[in-house]
Amino acid sequence: MTAPLRLTDRKREAIVMAAIAEFRDNGFEVTSMDRIAARAEVSKRTVYNHFPSKEELFAEMLQRLWASATAQPEAIYRPTLPLRDQLRDLLDAKMKTLGDSNFIDLARVAIGATIHSPERAQAWVNRLNEREETFTVWVRGAQQDGRLKAVEPGFAASQIHALLKAFAFWPQVTLNKPLLTPEEQVSVVESALDLFLCWYEVPASCSPA
């Protein structure tokens, strides 16, 4: 049974959620600590006790975004399992994150806040790219086993991530499109598998003995 949050922890969470809502509604530059305090229903001093600046609040949001993105299984290549089954597990986990409204809200706020600060954007993109590097490792393992064609692994990994994000991330973040339904998620994943494996999978008859 999860222990109830202490009052100070509840206030901190309220501040973070208020900041996310304010940044989403009004943008990073316009939002003030006063507005965040009012929305969180705490004093301005309480806000500053937890977060000395808006930058600190933004860093907290990036940390949460990062935690959501990393809450996925490691991309470990398994030579005894069909490629499609392995890839489906990885893409299903990725789609679960992309289908989380909290993740999309955080991403929308983060992207909006980074428009006027390339440094913020670069730091965020770099961290997300680090997470997707594990998929690159999976591609490399399948190539070494002779089951995927020779191609730069990072390029192939970016391609399959892009196949998902084109339907389940960028439309929601930039155009406020609704999250995909479970049926739509399955369709996007299966289509991505078809495209990726049709192009990159080495036919069994061509694989090393």
Automatic annotation (TrEMBL):
Keywords, in A-Z order: DNA-binding, Transcription, Transcription regulation
A GO molecular-function descriptor: transcription cis-regulatory region binding
DNA-binding region coordinates: 32-51
Pfam family, one: TetR_C_7
Domain HTH tetR-type: residue ranges: 9-69
This protein's record includes keyword Transcription regulation: yes
Keyword Nucleus recorded: no
Protein name: Transcriptional regulator, TetR family
Lineage of source species: Bacteria, Pseudomonadati, Pseudomonadota, Gammaproteobacteria, Pseudomonadales
